[in-house]
Task: structure prediction
Amino acid sequence: MTYLSPLGYLLGLEGAALLRGFRERSADQAFVEDRIAEIRRLLDTPELADTEGVTAIPGAISTADVYEDWAPHYDAPGNTMIDVEQPVVRRILDGLPVGAALDAACGTGRHTAYLHRLGHRVTGCDASPDMLARARERLPEVDLREGDLHQLPLPDGAVDTVVCALALTHVPDLAAVLAEFARVLRPGGHLVISDAHFLVPYLSPTLPRRPGPDGRPTLLTEHHRPLSAYLSAALPLGFQVRHCEEPRRPRRSLDAGAAPDPLPTHMSWDLLHRCPEASAAALDESPVAVVWHFQLEGSGAE
Result:
């Protein structure tokens, strides 16, 4: 069981702001005293003190259930993860030779569409029928297939490039999925993956979703990995690192008019306007995603 408290979250942000300020040598006396005063104010705010948190059950909702909810909103403006991840992935794709490409866990087809515009012969694959339906509306001329990352619906050595964006956090066994990517890639082929950075859930905890079978809120199981985990899974398979980047959350103004999270949730963490200075100090320019470019050893590899 996980108890999620709005007051607890705001106090945690204050603490994260202080620790980051100490680490980065940016916490002068005024900043520290302001944080302590704001903590006292938050503790004395009746609205926060009287607001009950949510007790959620980890693992009682599936990835398919969550993406069913997300599908209509996934590409909406304001999805910070996509905003920072997409330019980095596209910059890497711009430098790759045109050929046969697979967008694994293609979702609504945003990278599929870009690969198609670059001239690749693209196959998109996703386990969510709801996300695929959105992709088919966008790309009726592209080969889009329902399939799992552990059993991709392609023969051995079928593609020159594999893209897998913001999906591996849902996979418990990273090595098994990377082995499947290696199977469908030709020697010298390229693998571009992005994933949520392992620091994200420390600053933006996973939100509880719709009630599970017993009527209580649920938490999606996610796997946030240190960067070494990707190397440990990829290098034994013959992948070579070509690039790694950790795009960061942009610096922005956090005030009462800030837009809420566009994705539907059972409970919202749209509370940052209550302590904008601490929120900015804790969150701004923190890593949001990690993007890897690997190349499979063999013909064409440097």
